[in-house]
Amino acid sequence: MEIVRKIAKDYRIPLLALLVFVFMSLTNPYFFKQANLFGLFDSMPAYGIAAVGLTFIMLCGQLDISMGSVMALSSCVFMMTLNSIGFIPSMLLALAIGCVLGAVTGFFVAFFRLSPFIVSMTTQIAYKGIALTITNSTPVVNMHPVLVKISEIKVFGAIPITFFVFVLVALLAEFVMTKTQYGRNLFVIGGNINVADNLGLNVRGHLWSVYVIQGFCAALGGIVMMTRMFSASGNLALDGPLSIIPMVIVGGTAFAGGKGGAIKTLFGVLLMNIIFNALSMFNIYVNIQQLIKGVILLMIIVSDKYLENRHNKV
Amino acid sequence: MGNAEFFEIKNVSKTFPGVKALDNVSMSVAEGEVRALVGENGAGKSTLMKILNGNYKMDSGQIFIDGKEARITSPVKAAEYGISIIFQELNLVNQLSIAENIYAGRLKTKGKVVDWKAVEADAKALLDRIGFDVDPRTEVGKLSIAGKQMVEIAKALSYKARIILMDEPSATLTKAELDSIFKIIKDLKSKGISVIYISHRLEEIFTICDSVTIMRDGKIIDTKKINEITRDEIVEKMVGREINQTFPKRESHIGEEVLRVTGLHRKGSKSEVSFSLHKGEVLGIAGLVGAGRTETMRALYGVDYVTKGEIYVKGKKVKINSPKDAKKAGIAFLTEDRKEEGLTIDFTVKSNIVMANMKKIMSGIFLSTKKENQTADKYIKLINIKTPSRMQKVLNLSGGNQQKVVVAKWLNADSDIIIMDEPTRGIDVGAKLEIYELINKLVSEGKSVIMISSELPEVLGMSDRVLVMKDDAIIAELTGDRINAVEVMRYAL
Known about the structure:
Chain A is mostly helical and about 325 residues long. Helix content of chain A is about 75%, strand content about 5%. Chain B has about 500 residues and is of the alpha/beta class.
């Protein structure tokens, strides 16, 4: 019984995801169809990878809302240079740009200790401005053969290869977070920044670095997004922050920092996407779907907080 | 004891704008000595600690460890020199495990990968060394304050600390917890580690320390072997004047019953409580920490959930489900944590006083600055709040005066029943006296006071009647001659 309770407590998010998945497979004839499953797994990697990046930042008790614009700008550059310099070079270029954009945001957060919300809000506007300028406000469409090829690779007949890229990124991130001194330092910084200062940790350096990681992840997410959209624009991923932040929180990374992990985020992404996919199975008007999404999100977060704190009540 | 001048501070001075915080301070501590450091708030203890920890830079002076000069420029350097400081606001990350807290920032690695097994084994060995039997993987947030202090001690040992400074470790500990901390201190002593023990509670100093250094106004006043000085002498040197009477006398005029609580049961409590309070009375609540004193008052005040019981205020039955109800019934609650719960620390004295009763300062639908000022000035004068002006931020007042602001706030809210939870915690001897005088003034004006205090002399000296609590129950009611330490401890222990 004790073990059951422990499992229910520690793995409630993945269990809930599995539950919804099995329930939908059993009750809805269209859910467990190849086309739907492909769509489901295809919808996750882009924002999922960015969410893993954000997890690093939130572990430190910081925030970033510029990742949507970072995705837009880096994928615009990627799509524009793809034909002239080739797939790998333009991918590296886009990733490098992502790192630089993250570094700019992180610089102001880490060295001036400005509010990350305000800093990333302004950089988000600036990055989007750059993207719209270089693309002349028109979408950059590119059906590059490598992109098309990647989009066609399926594992087990229904899972796009990009999903495994996402899983790989999450596993790698989890390893860094749990098994390296660097990763553990992030927890100390997010948990109690005074302790970190007293330990003589390079708090600025760490804070800066997580924004670079986030920039990298957002750019990678942007590239992954291109494997199904084949079109980039300055307005890409406009809903990025508002979709990605909830995924991280639902996964179980604390908004205040010091608690969480990349695997948690992985399951947060899975759960949210499965629920949203399930919602689209029912014939519900799309605006009402938004409302239901909001309510479900609130319910998950509230009940999760309750479960966390239940034993702490007086 | 080994080397008598093992740890030496020489002519250390530090000036802040307008204040000479440390004035040519010199002291030395022997190897394995437990030294008490006492002084009123503002005497310079915290500044000295922060210099030793490398948070502040001293203006002049030197620090020696084992005859070698230590240049402490950062907390990391302090640790390298073998100085560990256990601050009151503990330096721990609640979300992380005990093991990780001990070794944060310097986890053992195999290659580049953290070797958790080794980290946990090392932590376990340290915890065993101080006799703290706990799984090193336990989250620190789940530990009691005493447990956290033990983790801090283990952490200090992990840095091979040779001198440990403890800042008021006992402030929030129960007796049993304190005993285990004392046991560890004795153990440290036997291993040749020196301890500087800072505390306001003089009784403890006589239990655990070898010697005592008294500070006042940034200077060292005296250092004595503990058996060569009495409690009164220490207090005298701390305040720089003789205090014959710690508790000001008052003429009690006890009137009719203003509060009656019958069979009050709080959720999770092991027992029900019944008691009454009269006009002009100071009712002391004694008992050990954890006896349910604060919790009972929180329930009465509507913070903690009440499952059953009745409350009568001035003969009328009232329902108190929230602090709002309590306030309406004329009950005020001064929490022990005044900075967190009682005051808006960034606001002015004026705003803090008037905020609990806006109705009084309204003129029609608008706030009247004139009424605001009048109200604030009235209370500043009435209870003698020492502030340069009503526009001073509460943050800049001393602890005693902050406490007075809280009292003023509640008086302005027309409270007749004032519950004070540890009203003198963390404030210095002189300010304590003023709080006592304030309590006397309150009851002489017909208010009634319930005072919870862990400082027994305070309860004994101030109360007209004392209730002793143990395990959530009121087990004794003492009046007259029976209000003495022996009686109280007989029931409380």
